[in-house]
Amino acid sequence: MSMNIAGKVAFVEKIDRTDRRILEQLQQDCTLSMSELADRVGLSSSPCWRRVKRLQDMGVIKRQVAQLDRELLGLQFVVYVYVKLAKTSRDSLERFEADVQLWPEVVLCELMTGAADYLIKVVTEDVRSFDHFLREKLLAETMVADTQSRIVVRTVKETSGLPLGE
Q1: How many CB atoms lie within 10 A of CB 166?
Q2: Cα(65)–Cα(67) distance, integer angstroms
Q3: Residues of the chain by 3-state class (helix, strand, coil), percent to 5
Q4: Are 149 and 79 in contact (CB under 8 A)?
Q5: Residues 6+ apart with CB under 8 A from 155
Q6: Is the pLDDT of residue 9 over 70?
């Protein structure tokens, strides 16, 4: 769904303070029962359910997922990789973006301005697994001209919550 700036402004204006409180609570714990959620935001269950349903229908709530502990799952190695394509054309961008969708090791991909075309976040078990991903997937793509990797030493903050403000 593509929306112009005026449409996005009108869209945001439809979200009131109570909607924001609902979204804050769901960002903290999307497993809350409707009764618990309603209590936390000061509504009864039915009006709260209607608001959640409206936020889902509007696309504000895209999906609800479980946030996993990657280290407990043996995924200890995190690398950010700057990717420069050989040719920055619509075709090469679309092809690279389609490939990224197929690589489970890539948990984030951002199209960027500047020296690199993309920044990807790669999560693997260890350095050998990353090397395999780099050689067999990323560098196997003929459209990739250059990569620069940055290994994460320690994660200081990690959240999927958005700053909703008041």
Answers
A1: 5
A2: 6
A3: 40, 20, 40
A4: yes
A5: 78
A6: no
